[in-house]
Amino acid sequence: MSFRYDAAVAARDVDVALEIERGETLALLGPNGAGKSTVLAVAAGLLRPDSARVELDGRPLTVSGAGRRAVHVPPHDRQIALLSQEPLLFPHLSVLDNVAFGPRSRGASRAAARATARHWLAEVGVEELADRRPAQVSGGQAQRAAVARALAADPGLLLLDEPMAALDVAVTPDLRRTLRRVLADRTVLLVTHDALDALVLADRVAVLEGGRVVDHGETARVLSQPRSRFTAQLAGLNMVTGTWQDGAVRTASGLRLEGMPDGDPQPGDAVVAVFPPRAVSVFREPPGGSPRNVLRVTPTQLEPHAGQVRVRTAELSADITPQAAAELDLAPGARVCFVVKAAEITVYAV
Prior knowledge:
It is a single chain. This protein is an alpha+beta fold. It folds into 2 domains: 3-224, Rossmann fold; 238-349, CATH 2.40.50.100. The chain is built from 9 helices and 23 strands. The strands form 5 sheets. The protein has a 6-stranded mixed sheet with strand order 7-8-9-3-10-11, sandwiched between helices. A hairpin with a 4-residue loop joins strand 1 and strand 2. It starts with a strand and ends with a strand. Keywords: ATP-binding, Molybdenum, Nucleotide-binding, Transport.
């Protein structure tokens, strides 16, 4: 089913419009407090917005606002399933009966509901746990059972609220692969803080900041050409904003940064320049040689990162080897130069 969402919650300063086509997964990204949970609560029918029109396959679920005939379909009648960070399985029921709960509540016979439950337990790879109680399974197994329970209800829309956030890192990749397979033909709204979740599971991405959508589009485009600092951080990229002047990015502070334009920015256009931390070299003094971008910065933090040392400043990061960090005698507060070749920087209009 397709999903249309246009809702505002004044008390939380959230005003968001979204569309999800049949069989599509849309990932909702954003920092804490951006409004992601509010969007899910409105979609699930747990929160009544001040002004809204929310539809699933053309059926109004929530309608509110001046001049509108109010509609509010209760959560149990929306054909929407919500899967949160915690599995929330019924502790007094077996795993099988937890998964069978959805079909039973929609009128299926006990035998038919259990057959559906066994099918979905097999689909998510935990059919052998059918007779156990939730207290007898691991966190990863319980979350798989929760996925099966959500799918067994055959929802028109599946809401996933950071479903892997509470799991051990060792079990997350396998569950992510399972979700990619079982969600392939489903209509899904996924809230996540993990760029890999978005890349693996989502067809499109919408980025929320301050209760508004600040970027949206195909997942690969949004993560490779971010238009917000949060998205750049999530994608592991440095981002510098400015205007296009004389073949370079000029920032408000007067910095000039040369890069490779993607498209044809015009003089005065608002642009961003992005580049990965691995493209940054660190020096005590500006180096000579071929023309490069030299940025004088002050490190605020040094931390291990994927076998290297990540040198963080207030706005930028560089990845260097532990040997290089030792030779430079780096420490927070020391003045250094970040150096980036123009060929490593992508510039595009926003």
